[in-house]
UniProtKB/TrEMBL annotation, chain A:
GO terms for cellular component: mitochondrial large ribosomal subunit. The keyword Cell division does not apply. Belongs to the bacterial ribosomal protein bL32 family. It is found in: Mitochondrion. This is Large ribosomal subunit protein bL32m. GO terms for biological process: translation. One of its GO terms (molecular function) is structural constituent of ribosome. The lineage of its organism: Eukaryota, Metazoa, Chordata, Craniata, Vertebrata. Keywords: Mitochondrion, Ribonucleoprotein, Ribosomal protein, Transit peptide. Component of the mitochondrial large ribosomal subunit (mt-LSU). The mitochondrial ribosome (mitoribosome) is a large ribonucleoprotein complex responsible for the synthesis of proteins inside mitochondria. It comes from Sakesphorus luctuosus.
Automatic annotation (TrEMBL), chain B:
Gene3D superfamilies: Ribosomal protein L22/L17. Pfam families: Ribosomal_L22. It is found in: Mitochondrion. This is Large ribosomal subunit protein uL22m. Belongs to the universal ribosomal protein uL22 family. Coiled coil: none annotated. It comes from the Eukaryota. GO terms for cellular component: mitochondrial large ribosomal subunit. Its main location: mitochondrion.
Length: 170, 202
């Protein structure tokens, strides 16, 4: 069995010989990074008139000592950096999901958004194209509802479902 | 090229794949699949205690759950783990729902999975009667990639992953410890002074 495994090893080696590991191209990239330096050093060997990066490094702000893990922990775990607990979370009286006090309930908003999208699709079907919006009001009627006297001149959109409890008529 | 391939194989080490199929006398050890070992945290769920004696106080149920190799940083995940440590599970879920971090969504899924596990398999009666006893993050497997800079320079960037571990215990969350006041510290100091003895004497 060991001999079989060793043979598999050798086969893998041959197979991976051409493949370079993910950081293999580092070897290829190192060459162009070093070559310009070698070329410039060779050409400017007489006088270093060109103020390269090497001169400005002298007066750069640089850490003097390695920051110990204790110091790092004091900074990272300082109470100002910890996430504060939110005290403005309540329960939505309509659906029972959680909501923030100053924000609309996400579930109810999504529910209304979905229904609005379907109503808009119906409107689109009725209009048939862009720029065909009529100059009168629109009324949405659900299953088994008739237009009242107040909805005389308005455009009527039919939706083939029961009226949702949150969409109050008139 | 050859040296790199050998280095890669040194990591792969197929000779080590054999022991995963060897027989153990204990039946409770699950034989692992190739290169996949059940972590220590997952094994904590397999311990079975002997039945409790009539006089003993009731041992609260514990559930250990984790998620491996989450594409997030362990340091960033630690802040969320620190937030929910010691909270009841409902409070923790509420806090995570309204947190904007990427890890909050992941931890929320893990907590819901753990709650489900607790109710189904670990004999927990009420799913709200759980609190988070421990919540930890760990470093996952990092990958190194090249980050290309200007002028032919390059840097090596790390693609960072983390694990998240959580332990849920049945029962209400423990009350928070009272903060150590100056008076407490002074009392301890005086106690230390009083308990001094003179060495090498009668």
């Amino acid at each position: 069995l060991r001999a079989v495994l060793q043979r598999c090893c050798r086969r893998l080696q041959q197979g991976l010989g051409g493949h370079s590991p993910p950081w293999g191209p580092a070897l290829a990239v190192q060459a162009p990074a070093f070559l310009p330096h070698a070329a410039s050093a060779g050409s400017d060997s007489d006088a270093e008139a060109v103020p390269g990066l090497w001169d400005s490094i002298v007066w750069m702000a640089v850490p003097k000592k390695r920051r110990t893990i204790e110091v790092n922990r004091c900074r990272r775990r300082h109470p100002s950096k910890l996430i504060k607990e939110k005290r403005n979370i309540d329960v939505c009286p309509e659906c029972g999901n959680l909501k923030q006090k100053h924000v609309l309930c996400g579930y109810c908003y999504a529910k209304v958004k979905a229904e609005t999208r379907l109503i808009r699709m119906e409107i689109g079907k009725k209009e048939g194209g862009p720029f065909n919006a009529p100059t009168v009001e629109t009324v949405v009627l659900y299953d088994g509802e008739k237009p009242t006297e107040k909805d005389e001149g308005k455009r009527i959109i039919e939706r083939a479902r029961k009226r949702p409890s949150w969409f109050v008529q008139n | 090229g050859a040296a790199l391939a050998r280095g890669l194989l040194g990591w792969a080490r197929p000779e080590r794949w054999l022991p995963s199929c060897s027989l153990f006398p204990l039946s409770c050890i699950h034989t692992s699949t190739t290169l996949q070992k059940t972590g220590k945290w997952e094994r904590k769920n397999w311990i079975v205690y002997p039945p409790q004696l009539p006089g003993e106080p009731r041992r609260p149920a514990e559930v250990y759950h984790c998620r491996r190799d989450i594409k997030y940083s362990k340091d960033k995940m630690w802040y969320l783990a620190k937030l929910i440590k010691g909270m009841s599970i409902d409070q923790a879920l509420a806090q995570l729902e309204f947190n904007d971090k990427k890890g909050a969504k992941v931890i929320k899924e893990v907590l819901l999975e753990a709650q489900d596990l607790a109710v189904r398999k670990h004999n927990v009666e009420f799913k709200s009667n759980l609190h988070i006893a421990e919540s930890l993050t760990g470093r996952g497997r990092y990958m190194k990639r090249i980050r290309y800079h200007a002028k032919g320079r390059f840097g090596i960037m790390k693609i960072v992953r983390c694990h998240y571990f959580v332990k849920l215990v049945e029962g209400p969350p423990p009350p928070p410890e009272p903060r150590r006041t100056g008076f407490d510290q002074a009392k301890e100091y005086v106690q230390q002074l009083r308990s001094r003895t003179i060495v090498h004497t009668l």
